[in-house]
């Protein structure tokens, strides 16, 4: 795939001395979904704002579709759609006119057929003549997405797009995101719903203190940093873990009916076969065995809590 966004040694330091970005380098491939994760103040929004031309970087370069965002900003900006965190809409304007107006800002001619397509895909068509102040928070956020798509951008930035949206609407919006990706739109998102990033993103980047710690394919990230938990259900409740099995990392459930064992998926030997054999040797009969992969949230907390050298893909 071709890199539609190329970021090289990007830095941003504000006049107060705060360093929001420090030497960030990243290539984003055309047609992929990449999720940027990080705690509040990590630099995610600043990175998006620089790429979109809203914040002037201190150093480094960014190219969108081969266009430098500073020297060829008009061509670069035309390729980008942005859905910001904050909901800022003209309260008395109709939904249809809001989207039309944004399309005009990019120098695009009228195309009500395309606008209808966008509004229908976001379940907004029935609200096309409603003033934006009459809409719920979730609907207003959909209008922001419609505005961002008004000029048919090649790259779509979603900065916390599902904040304040209920579960049903969130799922519908992610279906729209998946459809856009299938149509070739490159999508960069920040989100606090880590399970969505795990499900939707092709790659995940972790940012902390203005540094890009790593970028990995989602499955690879889970495999590299994830751990699994083995749950062993026993036929008869145990009062305690047998002394011969102490120090093996076993944990007994309060009701004594199950044992849990954490293991590293990357280890040459997980110790599971030996553990099951030792349980049998102790006369402990096993009813069932199951495993659970650690979630992205657990992986994320591990990454941001441990000192690491930044790594780029």
TrEMBL record:
UniProtKB keywords: ATP-binding, Nucleotide-binding, Transport
Superkingdom: Bacteria
Ranges of residues in domain ABC transporter: 5-234
GO molecular function: ATP binding; ATP hydrolysis activity
SMART domains from the UniProt entry: AAA
Membrane-crossing residue ranges in chain numbering: none
PANTHER family: ABC TRANSPORTER ATP-BINDING PROTEIN
Protein name (Swiss-Prot/TrEMBL): ABC transporter ATP-binding protein
């Amino acid at each position: 795939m071709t890199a539609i966004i190329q970021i090289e040694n990007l830095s941003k330091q504000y006049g107060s001395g705060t360093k929001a970005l420090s030497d960030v380098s990243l290539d984003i491939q055309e047609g992929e979904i990449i999720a940027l994760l990080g705690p509040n103040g990590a630099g995610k929004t600043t990175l998006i704002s620089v790429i979109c031309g809203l914040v002037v970087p201190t150093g480094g370069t960014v190219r969108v579709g081969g266009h430098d965002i500073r020297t060829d900003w008009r061509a670069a900006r035309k390729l980008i759609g942005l859905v910001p965190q904050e909901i800022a809409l003209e309260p008395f304007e109709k939904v249809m006119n809001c989207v039309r107006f944004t399309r005009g800002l990019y120098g695009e001619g009228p195309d009500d057929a395309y606008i209808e397509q966008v509004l229908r895909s976001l379940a907004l068509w029935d609200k096309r003549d409603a003033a934006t102040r009459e809409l719920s928070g979730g609907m207003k956020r959909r209008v922001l997405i419609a505005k961002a798509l008004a000029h048919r951008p090649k790259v779509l930035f979603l900065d916390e797009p599902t904040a304040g949206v209920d579960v049903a609407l969130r799922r519908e919006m992610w279906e729209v995101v998946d459809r856009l990706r299938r149509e070739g739109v490159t999508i960069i998102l920040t989100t606090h719903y880590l399970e969505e990033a795990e499900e939707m993103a092709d790659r995940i980047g972790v940012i902390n203190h203005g540094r890009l710690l790593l970028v990995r394919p989602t499955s690879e990230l889970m495999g590299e940093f994830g751990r699994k938990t083995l749950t062993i259900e026993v036929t008869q409740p145990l009062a305690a873990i047998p002394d011969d099995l102490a120090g093996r990392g076993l944990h007994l459930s309060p009701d004594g009916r199950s044992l849990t064992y954490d293991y590293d998926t990357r280890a040459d030997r997980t110790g599971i076969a030996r553990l099951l054999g030792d349980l049998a040797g102790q006369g402990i009969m096993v009813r069932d065995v199951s495993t659970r992969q650690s979630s992205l949230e657990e992986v994320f907390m591990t990454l941001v809590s441990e000192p690491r050298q930044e790594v780029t893909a």
